[in-house]
Every structure is written in structure tokens, then in C-alpha cells.
Amino acid sequence: MALTFGKRLNGLRKASHFGPTLLVTTISFFFARNYWWEGPATVIALGVFLGQLVVGWSNDLIDYEDDLRHHRTNKPLVAGVITESLLKKSIFIVLPLAIAFNLFGPLGFIGGSLSVFAIGCAVAYNFCFKFTVFSPLPFAIAFGALPSCMALSKSQPVHLWMWLGGALFGTAAHFINVIKDMDEDHQSGINGLPQRLGKKNSILAAMSLIALALITIGVELL
């Protein structure tokens, strides 16, 4: 029984896209640390973490049929480690917690609302934006909002490098993430902007966006 629970827990971890989730959570903690001490920064990072769980789980839930079609056995749902019912229940439990930690935590209502909006944008990508030419938009908004919501919560100005740098990095991440499954996406009719541009152009776009982000941040901080 314990082993079964452990396998399910590990399946939920994998379905959350744990690597990117942990990376975004860590970045949010260190950025929050510039505005608060470790306690509030941890609460903010936990709110981000819970939101990322919802984003990752909803992605695997929505992509389940497509993942089955392409035999992506590295996905816990396809491998049968977890069920659709478990994922839905997990989202139902974690989503209110993510909203509460953001709205009623150190970010306050304004900063917290922007953070919740970013979570909504990421989930909206899973449902509809990934099929359109506007697929980078949720990434740009979500990553741009991450540093901006913290500055707003402290009534401090949101500098150019915060929202533009975050948006550029987020858009680059979108292009990079899509490249590995691009051929299968074409077969499934998933035609976001990277799929329309192709692998070579998407790699060039990602490199250009990262360079622009580094320039934006570098110029602002010099």
C-alpha cells in the first residue's frame, strides 16, 4: 500500500513537470528575497510552486489522448502510474490553495492578483493558445509577471528589465520546450508559433530572445 502511494506521489511529481516547476519556484524565492526576509519569500515561493503544479498537471491532463497516440510512456498518465481522476482531484485541491497563498500572502491583493493571472495565462495556454499563432503570449505574460508582481506588492516601480526581460526569457523557453516534440505536434494538428516556424527558425528565435533578454537586463542594471 505504501509502495502504491509512493508510486502515485512520484507520478504526480513527474506530471507536474517537476524540473521546470522547481526552477521557477527557486527563481521566485531568490527574487522575493530581494524584497522580504526568508519567511515571506518562502510563502511567495510556495504560492508559485502550487500554481506551477496546477499548470503542469492540467497540461498532462489535456495532452493525455495525444500522449497516448504518440506512446509517450514517460508520461505518468500514459504509463498508468496515476489516473485522470487523481489528477483532477489534485488540481481541485491545489488550485484554491495556490490562489489563497498568492492573494492573502505577502504579495497582497495587487501583486497576488497579478500572480494568479499569470497562473491563469499558463493554464489558458494548455487549453487553447498552444494551437494558435499566439502561443508565446501566455509565456510572455506569466514570466513577465513573476518579478513585476513582487515590485508592485511593495509599491515600487516595475522596471523595464523586470517585465520585458521576464517576457523575453519566457518566450524563449516556449520555443525551446516545443522543439523536441515538434514533428509529433504537426501530426496532431498543434500549430503554435514555433510549429509554424519550424525547428531551425525556432532555435534561432530562442537564441535571439535570450540574447535580447540578457541585453535588456544588462543595460538596465549597468
In words, what does this structure look like?
The protein has one domain (2-221). The protein is built from twelve helices and no strands. It is an all-alpha fold and 222 residues long. It has helices at residues 2-15, 18-32, 38-62, 64-69, 76-79, 84-103, 108-127, 136-153, 160-179, 182-188, 193-197, 199-221. Helix 3 (38-62) runs antiparallel to helix 6 and helix 9 runs antiparallel to helix 12 (199-221).
Strand content: under 5%
Q: Sketch the major β-sheet.
A: none
How many angstroms separate the termini?
A: 57 Å
Q: Encode the helix/strand succession as letters.
A: HHHHHHHHHHHH
| Mean model confidence by pLDDT | 91
Judged by helices, strands and strand pairing, the structural class is: mainly alpha
Tell the overall outline.
globular
Q: Which range best describes the helical content: under 10%, 10-25%, 25-40%, 40-55%, 55-70% or over 70%?
A: over 70%
| SS summary, helix count | 12
Number of domains: 1
Low-confidence stretches are: none
Quantity of strands, as a count: 0
> What does the radius of gyration come to?
18 Å
Using brief descriptors, characterize the structure shown.
222 residues; mainly alpha; 80% helix
Task: Describe, in short, the structure shown.
This protein has helices spanning 2-15, 18-32, 38-62, 64-69, 76-79, 84-103, 108-127, 136-153, 160-179, 182-188, 193-197, 199-221.
